[in-house]
Amino acid sequence: MLFFITSLLAIIGLNSFKTNSLKNLEESKKNEILSSYDSYFNDLKKRADFIYFNEFVQSNKIISILQNNSQNSLKERLYLEFEPQFSFYKHIELYDISFYTKDAIYILNFKDEQIEDKFADEIVLKTKSTKKDSSDIKMEDDKLYIIFSKAIIDEKLELLGFVNFEFDFEKFLESINGDLNKKSILLLDNNKIDKNFIEVLVLTDKKTIYLNKNSFEDSVKVIELENYYLFLTIFSIVILAVLSFLIYLIRILKYKNREIEHKYSELFSQLDEYVLKLDTDLDGKITFVTKYFCEVSGYSKSDILGKNVNILRHPDISINFYRKFWKDLKKLKIWNGELKNKDKFGNTYWIRTSLFPIYNSDKTICGYSSIRTDITAIKQLEKANRILKEDLSNKLNELRVQDKTVLNSTKIALMSKILDSFSHQWKTPIAKISFELQKLDNIKDIYELKEIKNSVESELLELSNLLNDTKSLFSNKFGKKANISKIVKELVLKLNSEEVVVLDDLKEDIEVNILNSELKSIVSNIVYSILDLSKLYSIERVKIIISIEYDTNEDFVLKIEDNIKDIRKENFLKEILKFEDDKYFDTKLHLAKLLIEKNQAIFWSKVLEEKTSYYIKFKKSNNEDDF
Question: What is the side-by-side order of every strand in the sheet holding 134-140?
């Protein structure tokens, strides 16, 4: 909109300048015509005076003819005397010459001897009456002539007659037309003009020199002026268009710049809240820290800015390590690894950090920046895992010493396998927790932080349950019974969804002489193995039925049946149930099988193309001590 308004104003302004320039050019042309007319008129007047001087002053031949000849012979004598001179004077643009008696009676003219010129007669009468030389412009057959009328007198100043010198005025018009078209400058009566004519000079008898406006506008100068202003108009519009585009571009860039500033402001705010970031100069002095770093380290920004980064060094880390650290950083320009730090209060915390150089405008390293992740929780979990393993190992050693009569080599081997399987399952939640913690490096908003928090809590709960299950291996279970119906109902509530349907087909409450946690682990691991297979074979909806069957000895069999229709699972299950290859020791089904054997139950499966059934046969009573 601004472009169109500015363009319109520019066009109006240029039009105004153009109109003024045309008026100035028109006025200049009028002045030029006036100057040319004055110059031409004076020149013709001088020529008429020149002829008059030569023929009527310096020579007395014509004076003698007018003095001594009668009216009848006067015409012939004048013609014979002046005819040679007339031929000569035509070279100075004399068109005609006519003679009159002192009574203003026409005698002759040299252009057409037979025709009298009433217009010329009137000029002679005017000269006679005014007793002064006269001049006027005659129009005849669309041609223009300028006439100078003079009185002929002798040396005694007696009037002898009159002479008219007639010059072709068309040549004057042609000379002053210049670069204009023909008939651009005309001599017309005032009553013949219209709006297409511009008045230049008013002559006698309402005759006026006019400039033809249309022809004038077609002149070279006018065309050049028109082209100049057309160029100016186009150039101005182009300049305005470019300026408008630049203004529009600047506004767009400002808008985008504001958007970028807003986004970076939000990003920096989130970075400050949730990312451990620390920058130093080349001397190791801290130049920048985030708010979250201050929360973890215990230092305020005023406490730590300007201090050497060594303030965070833990005394357990040797000086040699840091020497190598700085050497590698300067050489490789980047360093990744784990560091043990201490906070303001002397407490230990672990970080995983990435360090990289900061460059100035001259592309010279001016400092180093580090992005850190707090891995203290992971380190504590790893420590707890080591302590638990050591505790389990010690417990096993104690059991071997205290109850050698009960434990045999087969049971120890079985326990070892159970522990290995449990140990592998601990790694899964620990790895997931580690993975979630690593996401903190790329966290963008608080919602992602909440998702990570929920995921870590879920995995910690899973890890806690695994630890409890492991701990229960060494509990004395004698006299304790597990309720199968209750365990199955809990599993049904937990797993039922649009993709998984678990049906409880148990008719009564059944208890078995086994720890509740171990039975729960057995059933859960079999069900989760079925769910893993469903994902492996891309089964969209899984149906699992849990039921009880009795044999002839009144021992009962727990049956778990799925609807996975894929014969490929047969070989997979056979390899696991053979118990000969340890490559499946980390599977859920393998752990279930080990726990079943630990509790002196029997486990087998029946694989069909349209379904698979898993069977666990429990004895009616189980009075033997377990280990």
Answer: 106-109, 94-101, 159-168, 143-153, 134-140
H/E run at residue 339: strand 335-342
pLDDT in tens, 212-242: 655 555 566 666 777 777 888 888 888 888 8
92 alpha carbon, distance to own chain's centre: 80
Per the listing, tokens 């210049």 go with 178
Q: Give the Cα separation of 240 and 533 in Å (integer).
A: 72
Q: How far apart, in whole angstroms, are the C-alpha atoms of residue 98 and residue 94?
A: 11
Of 536, 538, 534, which is closest to residue 501 (Cα–Cα)? 534
Q: Where are the alpha helices (DSSP H) in 504-608?
A: 516-536, 569-578, 588-598
Neighbours of 605 (CB within 10 A): 18
The Cα 280–Cα 289 span in angstroms is 9
What's the gap between Cα 336 and its chain centre?
37
Predicted confidence (pLDDT) per residue in 246-280, tens digit: 888 998 999 888 888 888 777 778 888 888 889 99
| Residue 407 reports pLDDT greater than 50 | no
Please provide the size of the chain in residues: 627
b or e along 47-61 (b: 16 or more beta carbons within 10 Å of the residue's beta carbon)? bbeebbeebbeeeee
pTM of the model: 0.37
Judge contact between 449 and 443, C-beta under 8 A: yes
The answer for residues whose C-beta is within 8 angstroms of residue 73's C-beta and 6 or more apart is none
Distance (Å, whole) CA 588 – CA 424: 10
